[in-house]
Amino acid sequence: MYNITLVPGDGIGPEVSKAVQEIIEATGVEINWEEVEAGAGVMDEYGTPLPEEVLDSIRNNKIALKGPITTPVGSGFRSVNVAIRKKLDLYTNLRPAKTFAGSPTMFEDIDLVVVRENTEGLYAGIEHMVGDDAAESIKVITRKASERIVRAAFEYAKRENREKVTAVHKANIMKLSDGLFLEVAREVAKDYPEVEFDDRIVDNMCMQLVQYPEEYDVLVLPNLYGDVVSDLCAGLIGGLGLTPGANLGDDIAVFEAVHGSAPDIAGQNKANPIALLLSGVLMLRHLDEKEAADSIENAVAEVLAEGETLTADLGGQASTTEITEAIIDKL
Ligand code: NAI
Prior knowledge:
Layout: E1 2-7, H1 13-26, E2 31-35, H2 43-46, H3 52-61, E3 63-66, H4 80-87, E4 92-98, E5 111-117, E6 127-129, E7 135-137, H5 143-159, E8 164-169, H6 177-189, E9 196-201, H7 202-211, E10 218-221, H8 223-236, E11 246-248, E12 253-255, H9 274-286, H10 290-306, H11 320-330
Parallel strand pairs: 1-2, 1-3, 3-12, 5-10, 8-9, 8-10
Antiparallel strand pairs: 4-5, 4-11, 6-7, 11-12
The site of 1,4-dihydronicotinamide adenine dinucleotide (NAI) has 22 residues, from loops.
């Protein structure tokens, strides 16, 4: 029996979290879910969107499954999602993007892994107004954070028998900040002679990923580029409904999909649970529950290949509940 923190989140979060709990339960893996709430819904009660008990629960269990949490645009509180990553020092954001047969995309055999730095860059949260008509955001790149993220990418590549790591940057323009990231990446690469290494400028990277995705394998990027490029990769494999993620620190792991709270379809039983489910698969692999992880992945592949029970984002008409049942039937 595992003790795992569950943050269902808001928007489509509670619907997709429930689906994932049911599917994991059907594999026979026993989990004692410790459910905690964060986001706008708890502001009145706790005076903060991220109560300390959420962080304590994750620190205590060392592992969490998390649904999306809405961030107000412009004013209002800063992202709870970013705060969780920073407070728990979950410096690696791992986002695999892999096509299944039947994925709704013109691309075939995509198998990319985005390794995004999760704690600094333009997400450092250092912003201020300069007078009334200008605003500055400060981008922070440190040797320490760059080194551990590049090392995490190489360690992942080594462990998963991946061939190549590509560092993505804009060091031609941001010569100091991205220059430091690239310099550190080149240094770390020397410790992993068995893994090929190259680098790309981020705009070129975007074009290359669309034109020659098969030439890339593991990508390591500073925070904002990682965010943008992981949505591009989500697009390559058929959308946000299929793209999982993990936030990893040295001893704490929080698994969450790449997508947000999808307010346009929230509460309508329309959301695709597969992205959070595949995040759950990453979690099962983290727990060494290989059999359960494989069986869920195979069940998802079968449902996608059959193409009979698909949610709207995948081109079908099935509800969250129907696709959940279809996956459970295949297990
Ligand atoms: P979003 O990912 O919520 O939605 C973008 C589009 O994709 C929408 O049309 C939505 O319906 C669709 N979509 C997303 N997930 C889907 C799923 N599982 N099944 C079917 N369709 C799906 O991005 P958006 O609209 O930019 O953000 C909404 C809110 O979510 C914002 O407040 C944002 O800050 C927050 N957010 C939270 C994240 C997190 O909790 N880690 C990550 C990204 C955004």
